[in-house]
Amino acid sequence: MRILLTNDDGVYAPGLAALYQSLSARHQVTVVAPESEQSAVGHAITLADPIRVRPLRPRSGLTGWAVRGTPADCVKLGLNELMPRPPELVVSGINLGANVGVNVLYSGTVSAATEAAILGLPGLAVSLDTHQPQADFSFAARFIAHLVERLPLPGQPPLVPLNVNVPALPPDQIRGVRFCRQSRARLVEEFIPRQDPRGNTYYWLGGETLGSEGGPETDFVALAQGYITITPIRHDLTHEAALSAMKSFTLELPE
Amino acid sequence: MRILLTNDDGVYAPGLAALYQSLSARHQVTVVAPESEQSAVGHAITLADPIRVRPLRPRSGLTGWAVRGTPADCVKLGLNELMPRPPELVVSGINLGANVGVNVLYSGTVSAATEAAILGLPGLAVSLDTHQPQADFSFAARFIAHLVERLPLPGQPPLVPLNVNVPALPPDQIRGVRFCRQSRARLVEEFIPRQDPRGNTYYWLGGETLGSEGGPETDFVALAQGYITITPIRHDLTHEAALSAMKSFTLELPE
User: Fold this and answer.
1) Residues 139 through 158 of chain B touching chain A, CB cutoff 8 Å
2) ipTM > 0.85 for the complex
3) Among the four A166, B24, B34, B69, which has the fewest Cβ within 10 Å?
4) What pLDDT digit, counting tens, does each position of A171-191 carry?
5) Model's pTM, two decimal places?
6) Are strands A123-129 and A89-96 parallel, antiparallel or unpaired?
């Protein structure tokens, strides 16, 4: 299969290298990934700036391109311009840090898989639940190669992308795979004010994840319990229940 | 009411000034908006860089702060640090250009309203359906002041943000208000390759909106027909139908 591989940690991140290695054994993998870290860019695309692209050097061990843009840019550009034949699957990751709960909204990793769906391709986003840069991505990479062979999963509409989170545990401690909903776990933000040498104030956004709202069927809880979580993702943001409830109301125009 | 006013076109955009004027007549409006244009940043937040903030000068005619960050940063920072008393409503806009169909995902304007909901506040995103910088925002601004008096609308859960699009028509040609779902209208991208003076290739992302998929009940179609559209927005990206269909499948771990 032709796979476009991207991420949001940047083209030289070890999580991407691990996926490249595990997927290239059986697939034709082309990297189209951001040149530098793009974490928390969400579904940003680059309109106001030109997007630079350079081919990866053979010594990088990767085939493909580094892009001065966001993960969504990479998917669009890979599909429309760079790859001689369009990919059959977009894989994004392995992200350093889980993408569960509200983090899914901020995640460049997940947005690449969503962008694939918008463009008519199956997509897969993968994250490892640790912030240790020395993390071992090998089991997660092996799991994704295993998952790719089984796509689409029974019941999965082919254009519904999957958001996969893998616990950072030794393989024999991983309890299995759970299909989960996105929890409402949110960040508790804390802004840390600092002064620059000229006395101007600036802020750093700090934050940590709050406990989950919702039960064991959420990504947040199942991941913490040692399960690999898989959440199917939608990109239609309509709140169906609210729309049904509001539809019969007539709002007049102002005078 | 205490209103936090933000946008993604930047603090000096005329769409923001129009809303400031129409809302300040009856409300205490505080601007917390990006210093420069942030279009298509989606739900990006700033983690890897410090966020600079400066108070707006009185001669700007606005009260509040300019923030070197994204619309979502502005909402977080306004609520957590800048405003002495927390806002009761977040209004984002008026954006130059409609936010319908898949554009909703890329939109910094909409993400500010979504961020409000995440933080427990009602939110409203407003866009005018034109790309003419000389556009007349006054009717749209008047409509939003009228809408704010009526929040929450009958049937609207208070924490479900609304995405409002207003046609760029003379007021007497606007046909009414429609509650609509997000259409699947997507962009057809075109990348325009250029060469820099040193022979390196770069790309501009061009693109135009494709015709709508879906009927007259979508934002895309109703807006084009001359209606103001209101779409309630969700930030749980779980694809419910796919999850139900997949849940009974057991995926084994790899060997």
Assistant:
1) 142-143, 145-147, 150, 153-157
2) yes
3) B24
4) 999 999 999 999 987 777 788
5) 0.92
6) parallel
